[in-house]
């Protein structure tokens, strides 16, 4: 089999029509590849598409992602089989309490010690943890002297709780002691769940969310987005998701760039959390399809997408170029006078 090759838009289908069997990679993050992403339904990364003689047939899905899995699948490529909808965990019964936006506060008020698992139905790590968590809950349920209970929250359904507790990845565990929230170390097995709930520690609260930290980044929402940007000549806006690993890497760079221009009243480095329900319409209006996405606005009007260099140097160079342009135009006006 050929080695993995990188391919650009113009070579894409031609490469597959020339080779009997080849693995290729393509970076489609840049905005110039929007048409390709739309054509092949690329909604997340990685997305693997299968072609025969230059013709797209279907996406490679649900077969495993190791080298052995892919090689074995290529011996007899088959389209994904339709999946039977899974029964929601909350409907399966068991000893885990399933909480919602409506009953969560009352439950943790009535139970002095609660270990809560925030999960998503599509999360593979959650599915692996689920039987361990369920078995631990069954053991604790059978102990007459156990004061602790295990509970679960589907964060994709109960979005108010997910936002309130800054759930940015799955699975996430939170411990509630007399209604107070605490961070939890990495727990994955039946034994570790039981040991924790029988002798819980109370570590310091987790680091605050980005928008709760004191930085020069302006955190915007759908209700103040336009009005705030209209007051700034130049604004670079980062649209992000708290759970996104790429966003987490970029945040320190973007924050440092914001600090570099904090005294310039014409400049704003702003951020929008697209996961928050109140911002979802805004992110849709701004055509945000991936995280992070950077847009440059001039007095509140979209001017261009920034996708060059997501580092402190890249951001500061971009903004300095804008300001240098302002100074040049101002100098020409003075000469004309």
From TrEMBL:
InterPro entries attached to this UniProt entry: PDI, PDI_a_PDIR, Thioredoxin-like_sf, Thioredoxin_CS, Thioredoxin_domain
Annotated ranges, domain Thioredoxin: 75-202, 203-324
PROSITE patterns: THIOREDOXIN_1, THIOREDOXIN_2
Domain of life: Eukaryota
GO biological processes: protein folding
Xref: SUPFAM superfamilies: Thioredoxin-like
Gene3D superfamilies (alphabetical): Glutaredoxin
GO cellular component term, pick one: endoplasmic reticulum
GO molecular function: protein disulfide isomerase activity
Family according to the record: Belongs to the protein disulfide isomerase family.
Annotated protein name in UniProt: Thioredoxin domain-containing protein
Organism the protein comes from: Eschrichtius robustus
